[in-house]
Predict the 3D structure of the following.
Amino acid sequence: MEAVNAEIITIGDEILYGQIVDTNSAWMGTELTKVGIRVKQITSISDSALAITTALDDARKRADVILITGGLGPTKDDLTKNVLTAYFRTELQLDQQSLDDVTAIFSRRSIAVSELNRQQAFLPAACTPVRNVLGTAPGMWFEEDGKIFVSMPGVPFEMQRMMTDTVLPKLKVYFKTPEIIHKVVQTIAIPESTLAERLEAWEVSLPPHIKLAYLPHLNGVRLRLTGQGTDANILNEELEQQVTALVKLIPDNIFAFGEIKLEEAIGLLLKEKQLTIATAESCTGGLLAHKFTSVPGSSAYFTGSVVAYHNDVKVQELHVKPETLQLHGAVSEETVKQMAENVRLKFKTDIGVATSGIAGPDGGTPEKPVGTIWIAYADKDKTIARLLNYNKNRLLNIEYTALAVLNLIRQSLAPTVEE
Amino acid sequence: MEAVNAEIITIGDEILYGQIVDTNSAWMGTELTKVGIRVKQITSISDSALAITTALDDARKRADVILITGGLGPTKDDLTKNVLTAYFRTELQLDQQSLDDVTAIFSRRSIAVSELNRQQAFLPAACTPVRNVLGTAPGMWFEEDGKIFVSMPGVPFEMQRMMTDTVLPKLKVYFKTPEIIHKVVQTIAIPESTLAERLEAWEVSLPPHIKLAYLPHLNGVRLRLTGQGTDANILNEELEQQVTALVKLIPDNIFAFGEIKLEEAIGLLLKEKQLTIATAESCTGGLLAHKFTSVPGSSAYFTGSVVAYHNDVKVQELHVKPETLQLHGAVSEETVKQMAENVRLKFKTDIGVATSGIAGPDGGTPEKPVGTIWIAYADKDKTIARLLNYNKNRLLNIEYTALAVLNLIRQSLAPTVEE
């Protein structure tokens, strides 16, 4: 089977000048790889007709699919649509569906459609429009000489929705891509090098049509097994067997199978056990509550949070004893345990968790440097506290702390699973 | 003055397959722009001799400076050095300084230099080595036909140190670069198309050496003015005058000058006015508190938050009247006003803000569909509530609501500025 090659072209001076980081290409690279399309090149160019035309000419020599993002805004520095119209020797015409979509977006905001936005519904006659239900710039799908060209907006959530709903399914059909199945095993609290050592013998024994990828993330390393074949059922069974073998090698470090986030996995665990939870947050400042509530349906188990940034709030709302704060400080095992226990009682939940630490960049002392963080878990039977030591980056300290609490919940609930 | 054009080439399959996001190019783009070098293209390719050679041939047609990152590791899939040696028709020879640097790094770790790492000190005879004091792969500076080619490792902190210490200073001298100055004006609550209409006449009147760019973000459109000239003082004054003219056209929609986030701008405003704030969050679920506390030094004005996800918490902790919930529901002007007023009293702050809405994807009704969200602001003089209508994406609804509250704070505090 011939490999299908893709090239990604991103248009916009903001990428070249470093004003924004191009995260679209990585997202597209991931999704294209999943359906068996190989990205050969990513090209970022400026909003210039010559640069766009040259990039298209070069890309079609290397690739079967050319995916273009950016330059579709309503202002005059956005040239992509006009350049594509000329490139494919066609002309603009009104696309009624696109106009309806734009009108719908503006009527939700109770604003009349401006002339500039109305012009966005005029598309090259030679293209098949790609609907954009989240923004005002429709996408365009062109076919020429067996090559596919797709132009999409640079706004990430609009592009992602269009790729998922329309572009990827159409590409799979057009190129009759092989069966590709992925299995994702998400690990936590194990460094990549340790993981690689534990998995080495098994990895070497994998058959050639099954590949393993290590994908490090903030919350751990995702392991992705990719199988390629002709029979989906057989392939799926083979992959399941490999996953079973993998699980036996690292039984304590897997928090989920599939592309779900740690907070979703914890949410499923709480739902399954019919437990409720509340958070008392100092250094995480609401991020933990935000992670819980970012999951649809979290109101079934997440009750609420007290963000106790000021020490008065720790005393008044979470009933931390003033003498504890005086004797041990806000960043201490004693304080964080009281916070977890008391938020549980206050919100009448099964579980309470708490954080207190020095996120930085200021506030460190020789005994408690920046990155010194206490976390705690409390339920009706026990209270567990843990000391974390991170580095100097405030936002990472906050993020890592929230993830450590989620992992502490997972570990605290785990023993019951084996009963 | 002739513009100096640059091209960035990043080498490595991990970027093409989306396993890592290419942040190096954005960093380099920012730094090159600052010294007046214009990035014309960023090209990401795989570790293949043909791909590298083709990219170099294409890049030298467009650019005066070609900056290459990646593919300098010690393993056999790293080809860059050998490809460059062939490309410049030269041969490898030992560079003693590089060997000393590698040896120093290993002796700090108390490890002997491996043969693979020793080989990294062999460099093409035609290059000027670029020292890497943080890693084992030295950089290489080539000059040919008035073009500069620089190869650096892909490890971000190594590349950044080499750029800052060696490459950027050498480029400034080599190309005698012009002065370039940027001014950023951050707008909010005005769509890009409306903005473009309001600014059109002024934008058209800009002198040719000053350019305007629209950079849309979740929280609004950043406007960036870029001027190029020979005298930094004169140029800066010209740009300041243009910014003054711009401000007059959209006086109510500017929240900051320069590269800062909305929550930082609000933090500065609260600090300046010596005001404290607390949040009562239902649908934002802690995100608002997280935004406030992500800013260093926010403990000076942010006191805490009650995340009242369950209605019992709204009654018990925020003293929302049960009859209000029964009569108007949790998502109502009455409820959200009580939440804002009562969290302010509870935490003894100057300002209280609140959110209550249906983030989705479930929980909508015909009268209150998903995306129906109430927000409120309360201080000693007034309580202001506002109804928001968003679409169906849960995470975006949460994000936009938090930004809308920050903007409501800005607007509520604004009149006092003009007193």
